[in-house]
Amino acid sequence: MTADTDAPPQTLLPYRPGTQWTFQTRGTSYTQTAELALLPELDGSSITDEYVPADITALKLWTMWVGKYADYQHEQHPSAYDPGEVRIHWTVTTPKVGGVFELAPYSYDTRATRTSPYMPRENFGTVYTPPVHAVTGEPLNWLRLPVLDRGWNATVANKGGFIQEATGWKPSPLQPTMDVRQIGAAAGLYVPPL
């Protein structure tokens, strides 16, 4: 064996909090340096728009949400989605969810099913130049951006935060769908029967 094959595999972790990225608005000289993060939003997670945590718990929201959305995509597009598959929409933003707010590049186009032809859509990569590390100049690896935590409790009421609050789960960067039955069952929560 050579020294290269004897070395343990290297694990790439998410970028550290506070990592700054420099990018420019395309077609202008406007340059920004900011910390970037990914914000997931699952189909139907806007159910929280009608409530506050004092009125309804994360577990009750979970039960309402899975009853309505767990099989929605499968019912609409049975050949493209399995039962329990819920789409995840991705946005690039800052940790405080402000300033930068664009669809994430390389994520699934949520206007179509997976079997539809590709349809270009404006996203971070069409609005800005590729981000580089503000100190080293290293290009950004989109799969290492941190995914923002979302909550639903006495101190925070994030849109869709009931999902992470109830299950303890959040998606991997740019993950296209969530398997509601798998995640719910693993967390010991209600899942609709097949």
Strand content: 15-25%
Structural class: alpha+beta
Total count of helical runs of at least 4 residues: 6
The coarse silhouette is globular
Distance between the termini: 50 Å
The value of Rg in angstroms is: 19 Å
Write down the secondary-structure element order: HEEEHHEEHEHEH
Number of strands: 7
Q: Quick one: biggest sheet?
A: 4 strands, antiparallel
| Low-confidence region ranges | none
Percent of residues in helices comes to 10-25%
What oligomeric state do these chains adopt?
single chain
The whole-number mean of residue pLDDT values reads 91
Architecture overview:
By secondary structure, the protein is of the alpha+beta class. 20% of the residues lie in helices and 16% in strands. The chain contains six helices and seven strands, in the order αβββααββαβαβα. α2 (58-69) packs across α5. The protein is globular and about 50 Å long. It starts with a helix and ends in an 8-residue tail after the last helix. The model has no long low-confidence stretch (mean pLDDT 91).
